[in-house]
């Protein structure tokens, strides 16, 4: 697969605050790339840098094989985005809003073509109603129609289900899947909801405090057949060195806390190896929940509810 986005050592500092810290990842053509992290993890800041809305403090952004620093206009003509709530004209109809944004994109379209775009997002029946009468979910879908009006190859969606009711969430989820499956779009979708990313993503990145925690195929990272083992010993530094020098190195999925991802049948062998190495084990706790996995890999905040079912 061709690489659509290649991000290298990206960082962003706001005075003393580091919002994004040495972040690197790649997005391949056809991906629904899940960008997962708790609120405040740095997701929106990263996406804004990909859209040239914020200037990076360091690092490189390459989209479609071109540097964003030197080919901004050429790149952004191939990108559509919905960041937070879409900015719409409430006294214009859905069709009039779409017509305005089509002209701004340099691709003025006739009514029939505009209606086709509204049909894609399920709004053709409300095309002539003022957007001030739209529900939150309808506004989100119209925002997506605006992002699609110039037929971009890449869509960037920041928390697209935020603030929606259950029906609105389901509608947006199905729309994203349809755009990937039927219209062959590449999408980057950020969320703090593991349940959403689990359904949508083909590949994903977990970010915490601006840093990459883990990246890979979603069905591998979120495979419930594997067991997550939370390990604590009397000498964590030595334990980590021993694990890295052994056959267990590939099972390490987090170091603070130390978490290994293994099949549950291998847990006795792990314990036996630790004993043979003379490691004093103080905790060896299997965890099976996808939520546990996420919370073990990120710094959990008690006031944040990162999951919805």
Automatic annotation (TrEMBL):
This protein's UniProt keywords: ATP-binding, Nucleotide-binding, Transport
Keyword Isomerase: no
Organism superkingdom: Bacteria
Keyword Glycoprotein: no
Residue span, ABC transporter domain: 5-234
Gene Ontology molecular function, alphabetical: ATP binding; ATP hydrolysis activity
InterPro entries in the cross-refs: AAA+_ATPase, ABC_transporter-like_ATP-bd, P-loop_NTPase
Similarity comment: Belongs to the ABC transporter superfamily.
Entry protein name: ABC-2 type transport system ATP-binding protein/bacitracin transport system ATP-binding protein
Source organism: Dinghuibacter silviterrae
Source organism phylogeny: Bacteria, Pseudomonadati, Bacteroidota, Chitinophagia, Chitinophagales
């Amino acid at each position: 697969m061709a690489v659509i986005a290649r991000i290298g050592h990206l960082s962003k500092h706001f005075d003393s605050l580091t919002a994004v810290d040495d972040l690197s990842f790649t997005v391949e053509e056809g991906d629904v790339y899940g960008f997962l992290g708790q609120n405040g993890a740095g997701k929106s800041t990263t996406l804004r840098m990909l859209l040239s809305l914020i200037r990076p403090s360091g690092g490189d952004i390459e989209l479609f094989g071109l540097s964003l620093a030197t080919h901004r206009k050429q790149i952004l003509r191939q990108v559509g985005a919905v960041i937070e709530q879409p900015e719409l004209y409430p006294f214009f109809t859905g069709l009039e809003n779409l017509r305005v944004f089509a002209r701004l994109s340099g691709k003025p379209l006739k009514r029939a073509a505009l209606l086709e775009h509204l049909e894609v997002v399920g709004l053709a029946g409300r095309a002539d109603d003022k957007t001030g009468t739209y529900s939150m979910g309808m506004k989100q879908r119209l925002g997506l129609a605006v992002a699609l009006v110039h037929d971009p190859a890449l869509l960037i969606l920041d928390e697209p289900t935020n603030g929606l009711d259950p029906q609105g969430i389901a509608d947006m989820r199905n729309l994203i899947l349809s755009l990937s499956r039927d219209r062959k779009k590449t999408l980057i979708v950020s969320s703090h909801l593991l349940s959403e990313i689990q359904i949508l993503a083909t590949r994903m990145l977990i970010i915490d405090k601006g840093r990459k925690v883990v990246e890979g195929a979603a069905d591998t990272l979120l495979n419930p057949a594997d067991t997550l083992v939370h390990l604590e010993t009397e000498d964590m530094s030595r334990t980590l060195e021993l694990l890295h020098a052994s056959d267990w190195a590939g099972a390490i999925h987090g170091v603070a806390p130390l978490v290994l991802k293994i099949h549950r049948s291998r847990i006795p062998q792990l314990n036996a190896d630790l004993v043979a190495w003379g490691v004093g084990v103080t905790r060896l706790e299997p965890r099976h929940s996808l939520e546990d996995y996420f919370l073990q890999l990120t710094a959990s905040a008690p006031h944040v509810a990162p999951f919805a079912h």
